[in-house]
Specification:
Layout lengths: L1 E6 L8 E5 L12 E11 L1 H7 L13 E2 L3 E9 L11 E4 L2 E2 L4 H4 L12 E3 L3 E2 L6 E5 L3 E3 L11 H17 L10 E5 L3 H12 L3 E6 L6 H8 L3 E4 L5 H8 L4 E4 L4 H7 L8 E4 L13 H10 L3 E4 L5 H17 L10 E4 L4 H10 L6 E4 L2
Parallel strand pairs: 8-9, 12-13, 12-15, 13-14, 15-16, 16-17, 18-19
Antiparallel strand pairs: 1-2, 1-4, 3-5, 3-10, 3-19, 5-6, 6-11, 7-8
Helix pairs in contact: 3-4, 3-9
Bound molecules: beta-D-glucopyranose and zinc ion.
Beta-D-glucopyranose (BGC) binds next to helix 3.
Length: about 375
């Protein structure tokens, strides 16, 4: 048996330490299994909301869900038909597992057209906050040794990579699209990693958050040569006056109010990307006539983006590598709050819920 951190879906604040059987290679058919020793697991707002019982389901037949979807580990053993990784390699794992739609059948599980989705550590599949896990090599992505100091950032980076890539792909509707100015709403992990990707693509990037500089988020944004904007000091309207309307807005605030606000500021032919999962029940009034009017007159596009497939993990890893060389030492600063061992799961949740300065909470497992 081995230790794991789990919740009882449907019961608020049920996070607890438990024991589950150790996984083994022969759980995965055709010699394609990869057995991974977990080194670190990151947590984010999704884990907080799962613990609040806002969503998350146990796998069929179980009444608990092992949490943890941001994995980083080292390969311990591989089946005889595995060729992508070998024992001793650092790896992360994708999160979504296939359902039955055509998108699932071609490896784009992140685009499933089925209502139900399967995500390790989130929905209907156990997660990675355990001592070991096993999976098909299809879902295991190698992390270069030179990036091991950025460990749990690979999964959030994959989500940012997908969001930006989707925006650029969708904008091919313009035939020619040369975005110059981007706003990123939110300077949490997704906001900061999106800032990086857009900088690497040569855009002028403004990253907006509430807090006044100096603070850590502002320091990281400046370190990536983007501009940090405190909305306490500079209201959105004055920023738009200064920069002109942006070509692209990525919302990563976790606030649906701000997500809708973005729609009032994007420029003609522009695109707004929503990345936040808002598990609550908020509702707001919006100037719908005006948004509708300008949206139509400006040929604007609204895009939702969730999760990521293997290709986004791979491109995210390439951008993390490039970003780490371009802006040495900056990305590491995102990893603010390590928690020592799974036994300290209460401290992990406390940091997630209460500590507004905890940019990234992760558990050191081994
Ligand atoms: C995860 C994604 C997942 C999404 C919805 C996010 O926190 O990083 O991989 O698809 O939650 O469950
Ligand atoms: Zn997440």
């Amino acid at each position: 048996m081995m230790k794991a951190v789990a919740v009882t879906p449907g019961t608020p604040n049920s996070v607890h330490l438990t024991e589950i059987p150790e996984p083994s290679l022969d759980q995965i058919p055709h010699g394609r299994g990869v057995l991974v020793k977990t080194l670190k697991v990151g947590v984010d707002a999704t884990d907080r909301e799962i613990n609040e019982a806002l969503y998350g389901k146990a796998p069929e037949g179980d009444d608990f869900l092992v949490i943890g979807h941001e994995s980083f580990g080292i390969v311990e053993a591989v089946g005889e038909n595995v060729h992508r990784v070998k024992p001793g390699d650092y790896v992360t794992a994708t999160v979504r597992r296939p359902g039955g739609s055509i998108y699932d059948l071609i490896g784009t599980n992140d685009m499933t057209s089925e209502e139900e989705y399967y995500e390790r550590g989130i929905n209907l599949r156990h997660g990675f906050m355990t001592e070991k896990f096993v999976d098909d090599e299809e879902y295991i992505v190698r992390v270069p040794e030179g990036l091991k100091h950025l460990h749990v950032l690979q999964e959030p980076m994959s989500c940012a990579a997908k969001a930006v890539q989707q925006a650029f792909e969708a904008q091919q509707r313009m035939k020619i699209w040369r975005p110059e100015v981007a706003y990123v709403f939110g300077a949490g992990q997704i906001g900061l990693l999106t800032t990086l990707i857009l900088k690497l693509r040569g855009l002028k990037v403004y990253t907006l958050a509430r807090g006044k500089a100096p603070n850590l988020k502002a320091e990281i944004v400046a370190g990536m040569e983007a501009e940090y904007v405190s909305t306490r000091e500079t209201p959105l309207e004055s920023l738009v006056k200064k920069t002109g309307k942006p070509d692209l807005i990525v919302d990563a605030t976790g606030s649906s109010t701000l997500a809708f606000q973005a729609m009032q500021h994007v420029g003609h032919n522009g695109v707004v990307v929503w990345t936040s999962i808002t598990g609550g029940n908020n509702s707001i009034e919006i100037p719908s006539d005006s948004v509708n009017l300008h949206w139509v007159l400006g040929n604007k596009l609204l895009l939702g983006s969730v999760n990521a497939n293997r290709t986004h993990f791979e491109s995210g890893i390439r951008d993390l590598a490039l970003g780490d060389m371009m802006f040495p030492g900056v990305l590491k600063k995102i990893l603010t709050n390590p928690v020592q061992g799974m036994e300290n799961y209460q401290e992990m949740m406390r940091l997630l819920v209460e500590d507004k300065d905890a940019l990234k909470v992760y558990v050191d497992i081994a």
